[in-house]
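Check this.
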Amino acid sequence: MQAVLRFGGFVVEKAIYYRNSEFWSQEEIPETADLEPIFRFAIVENPNDYHEANIVLGVQIGEESSLIPFRVELVIRGYFQLDESVDKDLAKKMYAQNAIAILFPYLRSLVTDLTARSNHAPILLPTLNIIKVAEQYFSKHDQTEFDTSFQSLTD
């Protein structure tokens, strides 16, 4: 039996670690420093066949400020295919829920790996409520920060 949703792998589109050379110690981190991760994602369907899509998932930790020790930005693109029996409405839900749930652990691991190689404790991203993320996507979604052109696995 073949899976309804197939994962074809992922690529890292962006990986930035910026160390703030003006930051000296953990004691200097002010209470107002915002190290909460900001997550973004985009569903990019193949314009000729909605059964193929890219999921672009990104995270930003920290802002351009001298008040924090570092800034991290990571963006990954996952390649997904759906069984031909899946209709368009179900496809959107499967991409927003299942595909993101498949891709998120890779992003989480990359953030930990990248920050573990620095001079501070590694960052462990919190788990996500993927259903809530999907609901937010359907209520409003901003895909302008990503390259939202469809890419096939053979590109």
Notes: The helical segments are 88-116, 130-139. The mean pLDDT is 81. Residues 33 and 90 are 40 Å apart (CA to CA).
